[in-house]
Each structure stands twice: as C-alpha cells, then as structure tokens.
Amino acid sequence: MKILTNIQIKEWDKYTIENEPISSIHLMERAARTLTSAIMRRWGKEVPVILFAGPGNNGGDALAIARLLSEEGYQTTTYLFNTANKLSDDCATNKERLIACKNASFTEVISQFTPPTLSKGDLVVDGLFGSGLNKPLNGGFASVVKYINASQATVVSIDIPSGLMCEDNEYNVKSHIIRADVTLTLQLPKLAFFFAENQEMIGELEVLDIQLHPKGLEEAHTLYYITEEEEIRRLVRPRKRFAHKGNFGHALLIAGQYGMAGASILAAKACLRCGIGLLTAHVPQRNNDILQISVPEAIIEHDNSDDYFSSLSSNDSYEAIAIGPGIGQHPDTALAVIEQTKRAHVPVILDADALNILSTHRGWLLQLPKHTILTPHPKELERMVGFCNDSFERLNKAKELAIRQQIYIIIKGAWSAVVTPEGHVYFNPTGNPGMATAGSGDVLTGILLALEAQGYTPEDACRLGVYVHGLAGDIAAEKKGEISMTASDIIDCLPEAWTKLR
After folding, report:
1. 3-state DSSP helix/strand/coil % of the chain, to nearest 5
2. DSSP-derived secondary structure letter, 281
3. Which of the following CATH numbers is that of domain 229-500: 1.20.5.170, 3.10.310.40, 3.40.50.620, 3.40.1190.20?
4. I need a labelling partner for 494 at 20 to 30 A (CA). Which of 18, 235, 282, 454 fits?
5. CA angle at residue 80 from 76 to 83, to 5 degrees?
6. Whole-angstrom distance, CA of residue 364 vs CA of residue 368
7. Is residue 370 a contact partner of residue 342, using CB atoms and an 8 Å limit?
8. Which of 85, 76, 84, 97 is closest to 26 using CA atoms?
9. Is the pLDDT of residue 88 over 90?
10. pLDDT, tens digit (0-9, with 9 covering 90-100), for 369-404
C-alpha cells in the first residue's frame, strides 16, 4: 500500500473529480457520509456532539457531518471559524446547507468566540484544519486547540488532528495540535501517523475508504509503502519434495560474549525456526556448554578467547553472516567485527553491539560491503547518524545513509521501517508493544540470517523477516498477553506464523 504526501493526496482528489467524474461538492458529501457512518457506529444519539469547523475543506467536511448527524436525530452544536471572512467554495456550500437544517445549532465565529462548556460525556468533532496545513497553528486557533485539549470530552479528528502536518513536524508546537482519541483518516494513512511522537495526537486510527479513483493511486510515485500480507505470501518459497539441508544454506552467527550467552541462544533458535539448513554459532569458549545444551541443532565454533569475540571465522563455508547480539565492545571485538565484515563475500547482518561499535568508529561505516543489513532501534541509529529532533528527521538520515552506502537499514519500532539503497521505505504492520522486551531484536537477527542464507534477496529478507517477526509476536500476545511476553515466546510462535503464510 502506498503512502502519499499531502500534495499527492490533493492531486488524487483532483484526479478523481476529473476522471470519475464527480463534482468537488459531491465528493465532499461522499466523504462526509462515510465519516458520519463511522461516528454513528461508535457513538449513539444520546451523546451530545460539538463540531469545530475551520474555513477550508476540512471545515466543509465537519459542516456536512453536522447536518447529516442532525438529520439522524443527534443533538449537534456547530462552530464555524471564519475570522478572515473567507471560506472555501465547498465549505460555504455546506454552511448554507447546515443553516437550512432546522434541527442543528450553528454559530459562525467572525471575531469574538465564547467557547461552549465541554463535559466528559460530550463528543467533539475536530474539523478545524486538515491535511493541507503547512505551518504551525497560532493565535486564536491555537487557543481553541488548547481549550479542546484541556476538556474531558472525547475528541474525534477528521482525516488528521488539526495542527498536525502530514510529513514534517520538526518545527511544530505540540501544545497547538489536537490530541484526538480517534482519528478517522480518509483513504490512506499519512506519513506522520507512523512516528512514535505523534501517537498521543492521533489516538486510535481508522482508515475510511471514500472511493477515490484507483488509477490516481496507481499513477502516483512514492517512496513510502505499508507492507501487505499478500505481498509477503508471494515472497515465501515453497520447499521441493526432494530438498535436503544443503539446499537451505549454511549460516554463521557471531554472538554472545561470556555472560551474554542468552543473546546467541535466542538468535540461534530463531534462525533454526526459519528454515536454515545448517547453522554455525561462533562463541567464546566459556559459552560452549550452554550453547551445546540449549541449541543442540547448531554447530559450535570456538573463538580463541574464552570470554569474547576476537578471532575471525572463515567466510568460505557460509551463505550469510550475522554479527552482534551480545558480543560486547571489547577493543579486540571491535577490530574483529570490522575485519570479519570487510572480508565477507556473502550477505552480512549487523545488530546490537556491532552497531554500537560502528557508532564509535563512524569511519568504518564507509567500509561496509554493499547490501549489508543494519538493524538499529532509534537510539542506535542516532549514534551512527547523529542526533535527530524527531522521527521524520531520523528517517531521512537513515535514507541518506542507506543510499550513500548502498545498504539496508531496519529501524525497529512499532512500525518497523525497512529502508532500501534506493531510498524506499516499507513500514511493517505486524507486531505489538509486548515485543518491547529484552532479546526481541536478537530473534529478528536470527530470522534475517536464516532468510539471507537461504538465498532471499536482502530486500525480501528484510520485509519478510520483520513481518514474520511481528506476526509471531502477535500470536504470542494472543496466547500470553502483551505484559507477560518474552523473546522466547516469539520464537515458540514462529512455526504458527510461517504456517499462516503458506
């Protein structure tokens, strides 16, 4: 699924008007009816509805909703803010239609505004400003936003919370943005919805189909996508009847200093649950016994050091290498990481301490082989690319790094983002807060290692890997609950996740 910019959404509206064909006011009416139906599914006629409408088309939507709700028997009170005495054409039309509706209370605010009392049982519909906003709210509109946010009323925003911009909010003022309980967005989610710092403004998100022309979406070029289940299903490779373990790759996992053997165990178990033919785990000698007992299916290769990764493993026997989970940052380890990576002639995945090592030796980033996969969480990414004010800046810096070095970056989070060397970004829809637990990242590393060793392309491995990882987490959450989940639960649910994708 594509994610479009604010400008592209406007162009899509225009394309629909010209090619359906349909008039602008009729398209607004269609959107308003869809929004009204969504509101009526959630709230009954006993709930007082107070609507705040701005002078643009978002306000026109709110005015149309007020009329439609009133016709259905809802008690509505509407405030239209027209302080500049200039309404969009469709907003003006819906103003006249609302005035003609006998059951609706309507006030047009030209100068002074006496705010209504907003109580806990009230429903506020936010239609002040939509996706076309390009600068932070200020003055009277900012005051209205603060007043709504200070109330105990339930707030539902039309398309996007007023004050929030669709992409870049780096210089926005958080206190001047509506904090919605529910956002009813039209046709597609906005890029800003995928950023953690905006969640408190968005609340629960529902995407409503208003039947914009499908060809308009097809023709739109974008760098941003949401991965869909059907895409993932097509990536999964079936196994041939006469296949043997040699057909499914030999992977090398370098993980776990002494005292962190758990990281290597989690990554190894995840790798083995994702179809790898053979797995060799390169570990310090003091971790031998626990690996042999915990993961008997893995081949154990000893480092020269008793306690940490210090000596290189041969690259010749493997189809993919993963380095990082729990390896620590000993100076000898740092040198071994970069040498092992530089000499690799197969796909490489770097995670955890390998990323921390890169962040303290940023020049080594320039030596990474093409198509290397990095799997940082936001703070690990910032250690490599520098401080970022918000998620939008962080994503852009990740794109710059991926393009410059021709590598893949997985930014882990609620919507894990796969960033490609072409600058494309794929947001992953699976996963839940229960996965925010120690070892979850090690599990992902094991999954990615198995997929690359089996011959999946780096892009397919990244997209399939994060999807399966999140899907297993979702299955685990259903069984264990988000609070009680552990990384081992994710591994235990990998078989069911793979079964669901067949």
Report:
1. 45, 15, 40
2. E
3. 3.40.1190.20
4. 282
5. 160
6. 7
7. no
8. 97
9. yes
10. 999 999 999 999 999 999 999 999 999 999 999 999
pLDDT tops 80 at residue 315:
no
CA distance to 84, 155, 375, 435, 467, per residue, from 412 (Å): 45, 30, 7, 11, 12
Q: What is the pLDDT of residues 12-45, one digit of tens each?
A: 999 999 999 999 999 999 999 999 999 999 999 9
pLDDT digits (tens, 9 = 90+) for 247-304: 999 999 999 999 999 999 999 999 999 999 999 999 999 999 999 999 999 999 999 9
Q: Are 462 and 373 in contact (CB under 8 A)?
A: yes
What six digits make up the tokens of 211?
Answer: 């039947």
**What ranges in 206-315 are assigned the alpha helix state H?**
214-218, 229-235, 261-272, 288-294
- Domain 2-218 matching CATH 3.40.1360.10: the answer reads no
Mean pLDDT of 352-364: 95
Q: By three-state DSSP, how is residue 404 classified?
A: helix
Q: What are phi and psi of 74, to 5 degrees?
A: -80, 150
CB 324 within 8 A of CB 350: yes
Task: Count Cβ atoms below 10 Å from residue 188 Cβ, excluding itself.
Answer: 19
Alpha-carbon distance 141 to 47, whole Å?
25
In the predicted model, is pLDDT for residue 368 greater than 90?
yes
Q: Which residues pair with 106 in a beta bridge?
A: 78
- Rounded Cα distance, 266 and 437, in Å: 13
Give the pLDDT confidence of 166-192 residue by residue, as tens digits: 999 999 999 999 999 999 999 999 999
Cα(135)–Cα(164) distance, integer angstroms = 9
Mean pLDDT of the chain: 97
pLDDT digits (tens, 9 = 90+) for 437-496: 999 999 999 999 999 999 999 999 999 999 999 999 999 999 999 999 999 999 999 999
Residue 102, pLDDT above cutoff 90: no
Whole-number pLDDT of residue 266: 98
Alpha-carbon gap, residue 405 to 337, rounded angstroms: 18
Domain boundaries, the chain: 2-218, 229-500
Residues with Cβ within 8 Å of 203's Cβ and at least 6 positions away in sequence, in order, are 155, 157, 179, 180, 181, 182, 183
pTM: 0.96
Tell me what pLDDT residue 314 has: 84
The whole-angstrom distance between residue 118's C-alpha and the CA centroid of its chain comes to 33
Three-state SS annotation for 412-450: CCCCCEEECCCCCEEECCCCCHHHCCCCHHHHHHHHHHH
C-alpha to C-alpha distance for 164 and 197, rounded to whole angstroms = 11
